[in-house]
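Reopening this ticket.

The earlier resolution said the output was attached, but the attachment link was broken on my side. Pasting everything inline this time so it's all in one place.
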Amino acid sequence: MPVGDDANQGAGAVRTQVDEAALAAWLLANVEGYQAPMSIDQFNGGQSNPTYRLTTPEARYVLRRKPPGEILKGAHDVMREARVMAALADTDVPVPRILGICSDPNVLGSDFFVMEMVDGRIFWDASFAEIPIVARAAYFDAMNAVIAAMHNLDPDAVDLGDYGRAGNYFERQIGRWSKQYLADDLAGRDADMDAVVDWLPTAIPEGDETRLVHGDFRCDNMIFHPTEPRILAVLDWELSTLGHPLADFSYHAMMYHMPPDIVAGLGGADPVALGLPTEADYIAAYCKRRGLPGIDNWNFYMAFSFFRLAAIFHGIKGRVLRGNAASATATERAAAFPRLAQLAREAMERCQ
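Inline output:
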């Protein structure tokens, strides 16, 4: 999960090498309108799946590929990303246009796809501090409209009915992340996390729903219009699947409680003073767009979302202690684990 810092912004020298001649030949044969010559830069973000900017005299493209070499089964599946964005092309969820997909290992050595380059703005600060205060609420409303539109989609209607498992999403997710947390003895235990692990399975609200979920819906995973409060493209679909929409929405709404030094958030700030909607108003806008009377047990969903992120950071802590953490920010994320566990417990206690 990218942190909004300078290291993740812009593009520079290619770090994961690409066979430029093989790529150019494939583009000429498969991408309509492609014209040589081509220059290649690698985006500084996209650590999980190397991502490149391809520049030609007539156009710019983005190439996203699976890392070369052996990787865990099911990980870095760029074909899933390409599939979901292609499926959303004619919906109210804005995505880049997919221009070509390649599963032939003889081209670059791993799966990849090419999509249009969408020009616009990415905001790494959830307060939208770069925007005049009177306009900030409109940017929040744009995010709200897009996530509601995604959750209103019928997965079967966009040929994504088999994109993940249906039903029991919370039960499965709680079991998965609890098992991982409890198994990592080196990363250690935390009293707040232990309390949440014990409580969550007993508190799952009644009712179930299955929709397409993004998995990492945050302001820095969207490209906004250069001057308007309008989202041109939602990016980074690597964690997308079928799941419960309120898990996805509560993860997004964690920004209201998230300390800004951990992941882009407003934790500790007064949203009204920043020109932003309150958490209650933001939830109400989502419910209106989805035709919901409201969201009961909201703090369960918030506790779950902080628990899930805490479990991910706990796993990073284990990798740091074992000396096999690849990310430069891994140590900072490992150190943030107990604060996330505390936030999960605080949400749990608001339920009781």
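Reporter confirms the inline version is readable. The chain has a mean pLDDT of 91. Residues 35 and 56 are 7 Å apart (CA to CA).
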